[in-house]
Design a protein that fits this description.
2 domains, three-stranded mixed beta sheet, mainly alpha, about 50% helix
Length: about 170
């Protein structure tokens, strides 16, 4: 017996599945497929565009009563330091020679003349990194801020102005 899904029922099932996340979504998909009966997985894959591996995982969760825990927060890119362990040290070596402390000594910040694009070019020239291997200029700018460097024109310390104080002469 082949089940036909109407367009309104397809839209309802798709919309409901998109509103759910994780285990709840898998449970809904599994219950729907089991309700469709024999050939329900193939029908759901073709008509509803659901992934059969997700449906199978949901059916296993339903039959076993054990919900799989998804670690979605652990997914993502690795930090640039994990790909290139010496990157931060190389950036420090480059920037330390071109930086100075706050001339007024009001903060502990280090100011540098180098921009992130210049640091990126120097890393390629002096340390032999590839262009594809290095992170973008934006990432290097973030790493510079993380290391405590701020891009700012280095101000020269100006000598204090001599003030003319009026002195009273003792002549009488």
């Amino acid at each position: 017996m082949l089940i036909q899904l109407t367009d309104s029922l397809k839209n309802l099932l798709k919309e409901t599945a998109t509103q759910l996340k994780g285990a709840a979504r898998r449970r809904f998909q599994a219950q729907t497929v089991l309700g469709l009966g024999y050939g329900g997985q193939l029908l759901a894959q073709e008509e509803l565009e659901w992934d059969r591996n997700t449906i199978r995982k949901g059916i296993k969760e339903l039959t076993n009563g054990i919900t799989c825990v998804d670690n979605m927060s652990a997914k993502g890119r690795y930090k640039a330091e994990e790909h290139l362990p010496s990157l931060l040290e190389d950036i420090k070596k480059l920037v330390d020679s071109q930086s100075q402390t706050d001339p007024s000594f009001k903060s502990q910040r280090l100011y540098t003349r180098l921009t992130a694009s210049q640091v990126r070019k120097l890393l390629i020239e002096k340390f032999g990194y590839n262009d594809q291997q290095l992170p973008t200029e934006e990432t290097i700018r973030i790493k510079l801020n993380y290391l405590g460097y701020r891009l700012k024109r280095v101000a020269k310390v100006l000598p204090q102005k001599k003030s003319r104080k009026l002195t009273q002469s003792l002549s009488g």
